[in-house]
Write a sequence for this structure.
């Protein structure tokens, strides 16, 4: 019998496939006395051999998708399995103490982990503790007959089911096989949801209970347009989902005809519809969808996809590829936005009560200037290959912007003095995501070349509601008049100084928000590449004069998010 769940529609599309449970299994066990220790040692040896086979496959997949350097971490895991000091100690414990393999594995691994962690003067050896943990978990799973999930190993059509998905989990999803995903927690602006839209994978988040409602291999239907999920759908329900999938595919085919068209409204006004990217690999989606610019290049993925801080040359090559590919279309590159939910294992950050409000983004860059200067040098060197615009994230004060600009100018002057060719038309801007910066936009506009409004955080901070917490997801209100007033003030302030304003938050691709933004005069709309043609199609049907009248009412007469949503729906209709 089918079971229906409701979540938050996070990425457009419809999918029906078997569930793949990306959920850590319960690896708890009971200590047992063993009489036949030879058989128990043999059972342990088989678990080690099976684990080694796993790692061979995982390593090959990692090399294929992430490169040789990333794959080498699994060599360390295989070395541990081949280390007679480690495996021999476990076999000896089984034989001498007559305990089951699970207990022996647990005891010996804990000893090794404690030894490595105690080597406080040797960071390399300390890191080996994590390798032992991973290897122990893998061997334990084989002893207990439980499967460890690994999204990189998926080789058939599935819908991934998880409590939550980290950015690194999502980055491993191969859309050839992963037809959608569903999570217990999260919101539309969680990073996993944003990545899903980049990958064109249907997603529903915040269902509360999908991981306890579905079994591995069970058929599951996902509607990323409505937030509906059906476990074990009937034939009739499957047919209905497939019909919705065809309707969506037909709509996409119509939008595709606009790939080479400019983004023009019904009354002839041109706006820029751009795309957000995380890595150079995302450029195919940008080009396939006819985006007119890259409005946000999230460079933190360069740092997150590496086992150490990326070198200046590595960054230069990545930036050069993006700028060269897009040239002469502009590219807005956001400097490193690490912190909050984006952490680096090789760069520990202090534990904080409120990490989203803490040591992150430009605050780290200005404090750890060696990292910041390396990134800026790479960007400056790449600038001659395209139209570069640099954006600083999490700016709260004009002093922070001036400090960042000073570092930029110093590095530019050094490169020029060394004879390195650097573009002379690089624009410097800031993300407007902190309410304090939005309120002071009239003063910021005198100092910057552009603004890019980051609605995901601007809404989160303005409404005091964690954007990843589904219990307060009702407070993610992009149409709330308080948010619209901040947006309007930012746009008006920039235009008064002759500066342009973009929006790189998810609201820029929202079909309810776009008409409001047209009315408010936003210049650039940057979104997941998959939304570009949909928004361009919508713009063609709207008159900016009509939208201005509507936006005026939304800002000055409305009192709620729902009022403004209804106002747009009434004014725009089914366009």
């Amino acid at each position: 019998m089918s079971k229906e769940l409701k979540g938050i529609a996070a990425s457009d599309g419809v999918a029906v496939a078997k569930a793949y449970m990306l959920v850590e299994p319960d690896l708890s066990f009971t200590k047992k006395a063993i009489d036949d220790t030879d058989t128990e040692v043999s059972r342990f040896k088989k678990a080690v051999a099976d684990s080694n086979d796993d790692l061979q496959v995982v390593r090959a997949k990692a090399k294929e998708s992430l490169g040789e350097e990333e794959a080498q971490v699994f060599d360390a895991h295989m070395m541990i399995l081949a280390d007679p000091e480690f495996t021999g100690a476990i076999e000896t414990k089984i034989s001498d103490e007559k305990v089951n393999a699970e207990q022996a594995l647990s005891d010996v691994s804990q000893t090794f982990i404690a030894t490595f962690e105690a080597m406080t003067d040797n960071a390399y050896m300390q890191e080996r503790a994590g390798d032992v943990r991973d290897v122990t978990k893998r061997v334990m799973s084989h002893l207990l007959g439980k499967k460890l999930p690994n999204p990189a190993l998926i080789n058939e059509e599935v819908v991934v089911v998880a409590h939550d998905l980290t950015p690194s989990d999502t980055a491993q999803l191969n859309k050839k096989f992963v037809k959608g995903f569903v999570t217990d927690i999260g919101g539309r602006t969680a990073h996993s949801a944003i990545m899903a839209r980049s990958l064109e994978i249907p997603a529903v988040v915040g269902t509360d209970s999908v991981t306890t409602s579905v079994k591995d291999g069970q058929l599951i239907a996902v509607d990323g347009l409505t937030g509906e999920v059906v476990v074990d759908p009937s034939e009739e329900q499957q047919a209905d989902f497939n019909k919705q999938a065809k309707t969506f595919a037909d709509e996409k085919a119509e939008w595709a005809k606009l790939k080479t068209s400019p983004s023009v409204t019904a009354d002839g006004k041109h706006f820029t519809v751009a795309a957000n990217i995380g890595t150079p690999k995302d450029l195919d989606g940008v080009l396939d969808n006819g985006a007119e610019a890259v409005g946000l290049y999230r460079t933190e993925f360069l740092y997150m996809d590496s086992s150490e801080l990326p070198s200046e040359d590595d960054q230069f090559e990545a930036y050069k590829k993006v700028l060269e590919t897009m040239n002469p279309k502009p590219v807005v590159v956001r400097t490193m936005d690490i912190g909050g939910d984006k952490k680096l294992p090789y760069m520990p950050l202090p534990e904080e009560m409120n990490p989203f409000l803490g040591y992150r983004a430009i605050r780290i860059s200005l404090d750890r200037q060696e990292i910041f200067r390396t990134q800026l040098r790479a960007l400056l060197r790449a600038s001659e290959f395209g139209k570069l615009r640099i954006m600083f994230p999490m700016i709260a004060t004009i002093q922070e912007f001036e400090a960042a600009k000073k570092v930029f100018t110093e590095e530019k002057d050094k490169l020029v003095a060394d004879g390195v060719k650097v573009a002379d038309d690089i624009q410097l801007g800031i993300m407007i995501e902190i309410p304090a910066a939005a309120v002071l936009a009239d003063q910021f506009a005198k100092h910057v070349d552009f603004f890019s409004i980051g609605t995901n955080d601007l809404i989160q901070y303005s409404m005091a509601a964690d954007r990843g917490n589904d219990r307060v997801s009702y407070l993610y209100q992009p149409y709330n008049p308080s948010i619209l007033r901040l947006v309007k003030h930012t746009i008006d302030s920039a235009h008064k100084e002759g500066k342009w304003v973009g929006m790189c938050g998810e609201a820029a691709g929202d079909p309810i928000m776009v008409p409001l933004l047209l009315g408010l005069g936003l210049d650039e709309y940057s979104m997941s590449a998959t939304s570009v043609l949909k928004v361009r199609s919508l713009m063609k049907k709207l008159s900016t004069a009509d939208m201005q009248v509507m936006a005026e009412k939304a800002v000055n007469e409305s009192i709620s998010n729902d009022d403004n949503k209804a106002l747009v729906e009434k004014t725009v209709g089914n366009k």
